[in-house]
Amino acid sequence: MRNTEILVLAVPLAACSVVVMGAVGDSLLEQPCGTVPIRKFKIVGGHDAHVASTPWMAMVTGQAGFLCGGSLIASRFILTAAHCVGNKKLKVRLGVLDQEAEAQEFDVDGMFLHTGSELGKHDIALLRLAKPVQYDDNISPICLLLDPLFKDLDEHIVKFRTYGWGQTQSKDSSRMLQKTSLFNLRRTECTKQFPYQEIDRSHICAERAGASTCSGDSGGPLTAIVTYGHVPTVFQFGVTSYGAENCSKATVFTNVMAHLEWIVNTVRVSGNF
After folding, report:
1. Exactly one of 114, 117, 122, 123 is catalytic; which is it?
2. How far apart are CA 123 and CA 119, in angstroms?
3. Per-domain boundaries in the chain
4. Residue 224: alpha-carbon gap to chain centroid
5. pLDDT digits over 10-57, tens only?
6. In this structure, are residues 135 and 254 in contact, taking their beta carbons and an 8 Å threshold?
7. What distances in angstroms separate CA 214 from CA 34, 58, 67, one per listed residue?
8. Is 123 a catalytic residue?
9. Residue-level pLDDT at 7
């Protein structure tokens, strides 16, 4: 790793922001990434997202239509939940937030599930696009922080943002991408809500009164703003995995930081770099 002069972690300056001082070097999976304007603009208790603030958001679709959310992390790779992927032909739509709008659509020519994925554990997968994405104002990747010095950075985030096209208060799937904020929840407290699930370092839990993910939000990203290399940047920390059936409790996310080695190895071995 180059230029690793690091080293200050300031926690937290704002409700959903931390500052990490250090040179970018090889610490990001893809560059540039996450450098879009952050706008404070349904997920239950959520609001419409804005296309310019979510250029990494992906729709994963099958023959019957929309399946799950996902995130663009490199020019040929989408990060999503393993339970969204099966023996089916998938496509990915990028660059729009309206499910019914025209979008750039990409065939998926490779599906990579974490070998340990089962029963809410390691619920993470990568989809390889048949051709590279050409980045523009509406399509660009989210950041993944590879620096091992900050492998526990998720522990310091107070408030996350999450996105999806899942059910809203009306119980219908949302046509427009929704966003909401959720607060980091201690795993010990999260376990009380899901006593029959093993919740450990491979998970992140988050909740907020009156807001939650719901059916259809699976695979979408859990994000936070991190000032890294002096630039406020959107980083992905989780992948939406599961929650309560009535969408009223915490959401359990697959912890991206705990799966970085698998993500990087899969992307690089598959020929993206």
Report:
1. 123
2. 8
3. 57-141+261-270, 148-258
4. 10
5. 333 334 456 665 555 568 898 889 875 544 434 444 444 455 589 999
6. no
7. 25, 17, 13
8. yes
9. 30
Out of 5-14, 162-171, 187-196, give the one with best mean pLDDT: 187-196
End-to-end CA distance of the chain: 16
Marked catalytic residue, from 83, 114, 122, 259: 83
Element containing residue 243 per DSSP (H, E): strand 231-243
Residue found by looking up tokens 């703003």 in the block: 225
| CA distances for 51 relative to 96, 108, 184, angstroms | 6, 23, 25
Q: Quick one: which of 198, 201, 186 has its CA closest to 258?
A: 201
At CA 181, angle to CA 198 and CA 137, rounded to 5? 115
Q: Name the CATH code of domain 148-258 (choices 3.40.640.10, 3.90.920.10, 2.40.10.10, 3.40.50.740).
A: 2.40.10.10
Neighbours of 266 (CB within 10 A): 20
Could you give the C-alpha distances from 35 to 68, 158, 199, 223, in angstroms and in order?
24, 21, 32, 13
- Known active-site residue 218: yes
Whole-structure pTM value? 0.86
- Return the number of other C-beta atoms located less than 10 Å from residue 213's C-beta: 33
**pLDDT higher than threshold 90 for residue 191:** yes
Annotated active-site residue in 17, 27, 218, 241:
218
Token pair belonging to 11: 């926690």
Domain 57-141+261-270 has CATH 3.30.830.10: no
The pairing of strands 221-228 and 17-21 is parallel
Q: In the structure encoding, which two tokens stand for residue 59, read together?
A: 């729709």
Show the tokens assigned to 232: 């406020």
Q: Is the pLDDT of residue 111 over 50?
A: yes
* Confidence (pLDDT) at 102: 85
Q: Is 83 a catalytic residue?
A: yes
Q: Residues, the chain, total?
A: 273
